[in-house]
């Protein structure tokens, strides 16, 4: 390096050191709502209500348009508008409902803050119900939660009373949700506790509902199917038993008496040990319909999960389809079958579940996972919108070309009484709500995609970065080039990077044990059910690797519609990113890249590691543009992610190499960990 260059660097270093401390420390608690307005506004609205009062307040506090402008909020019935939709103009928001007005206000403010155009537009949400599923337990822990304890529940039964602190937090929570269009929250874990339906807990649910209501957020509960026998003193919970039917009717009545706008129930039944109608030789339809009938008079719905698989020998990926397809058409119109995006379980990449588009006479809603159970918890920076976009845009072909998952679930292809989408929340008591500052983008993105399932991940990232990081006075060309652009690029690459360093080429479910964090392709204790162990899914042997789901294998491909079924069935036309999902593939199989499967696998893992190393550089370089607190927090997490990515690469390549018996291509960095040590460490943690 020349002396001159050295000089330049030290001057830059000096500037960096001077600027960063000027940006005040941000703990992340304000999320994407950290911007204050820049001018006064006159708000005209002839009506008043708690929701309208919030709309007016938000406008006054957040207005960044022409100072002194007048904005009209108009409630008027308009057939072009759905319940939450609105007509937007620069100085006017018109809607059928108060919540429509509120969403219009958030849209207007967001556009002002991000510099998007505001022209006359009619805007309707894609889904009627846009719901967060909290896997929160009544003792305050969160299943698969990585951002602290529950914001709703505390350890002691004696602390069910609602405090001022609770109210403040729930208000902030409701506001954040409303600002991105989320209008429902299931307050407890799908592995439900029967206590939740007892009076003291319901009283707290009422307390929460009262706070969420003005923001248009409805409350829902996960319920335990065996509640009638567990807390109702009945001998059975058989859904066709008249006493059981009456018990649920009475319970629903009790709930609506204190929460008149209660949303309904979410049910995980006959799945992973949870009780359900099959315990009484009844079907999922019998169970769901019984609850739906109880909720119907109040406008409530049942979200019945299709995440089911038994201990049979049938390919786990095929079972939900096998159980639910025969029931198509048997469900009440206020039942929605809630289906996870993929047929197995929220893996870094899965094909879409074949139930989408296939159940033509039943309402079906997608469930995605915002909390990063299989994607590095709250340590890895993984922006999930690209995964959800890929899923929503997948063509099911079920009603001709263009029957995408999005269109098959939002009412465009099939007439559904209700439409909905759910996301498993990543929110906890951590100051920044989500553990990782960038995990906030996933909460944001879920809301935005639930509102408009045609949005691109790029647009959402663009909005989120501007709202979350841009400071007043930031010179735009400089900020756009040196912050927005590289950070957006990093976010957009991050999901594929995680796939690369964890489970490329269609590999899935090869994480270690039950915490679902690090690699564990070897993990297969004798007493664990087979379909929870990685070897069940990767099936590596001397001939190759991957699960044969072609016609000569488990035939899961046949659950997809043509021409997709044939495309997936043929090893030569199956997309490379799903190859090992559908095919047990020889190690020396030639891919379109010209490489053998083994070489390609090595390159993918290596690319993933390199991508995270690049994210570190990207982040270090943006230091002048972000406050020191957030900068350091994220820098530290990226370091951990890099180390983890290296471990994933070494573990998987060295493990699979035992079967491929082929060398790691010599232009690839060598593993730095020994397989034996990795396995030993992995076992020690348990
Ligand atoms: C799996 C989780 C488990 C959940 C289950 C579910 O590991 O904690 O209970 O899904 O969705 O991904 O029911």
Automatic annotation (TrEMBL):
Q: Which residues form the Glycosyl hydrolase family 67 C-terminal domain?
A: 434-667
Determine if Membrane is one of this entry's keywords: no
Keywords of the record: Glycosidase, Hydrolase, Signal
- Provide any one GO MF term from the record: alpha-glucuronidase activity
Gene Ontology cellular-component terms listed: extracellular region
Q: Which InterPro entries match?
A: A-glucoronidase_C_sf (IPR037054), GH (IPR017853), Glyco_hydro_67_C (IPR011099), Glyco_hydro_67_cat (IPR011100), Hex-like_dom2 (IPR029018)
A GO term (biological process) for this protein?
xylan catabolic process
Q: What class of enzyme is it?
A: hydrolase
Task: Enumerate the spans annotated as Glycosyl hydrolase family 67 catalytic domain.
Answer: 118-433
Q: What is this protein called?
A: Alpha-glucuronidase
**Alphabetical list of SUPFAM superfamilies matching this protein:** (Trans)glycosidases (SSF51445), beta-N-acetylhexosaminidase-like domain (SSF55545)
Organism lineage: Bacteria, Pseudomonadati, Bacteroidota, Bacteroidia, Bacteroidales
**Any idea of its EC number?**
3.2.1.139
The family database entries (PANTHER family) matched by this protein are listed as:
ALPHA-GLUCURONIDASE A
Q: Which domain of life is it from?
A: Bacteria
Entry-linked Pfam families: Glyco_hydro_67C, Glyco_hydro_67M
| Signal sequence segment | 1-25
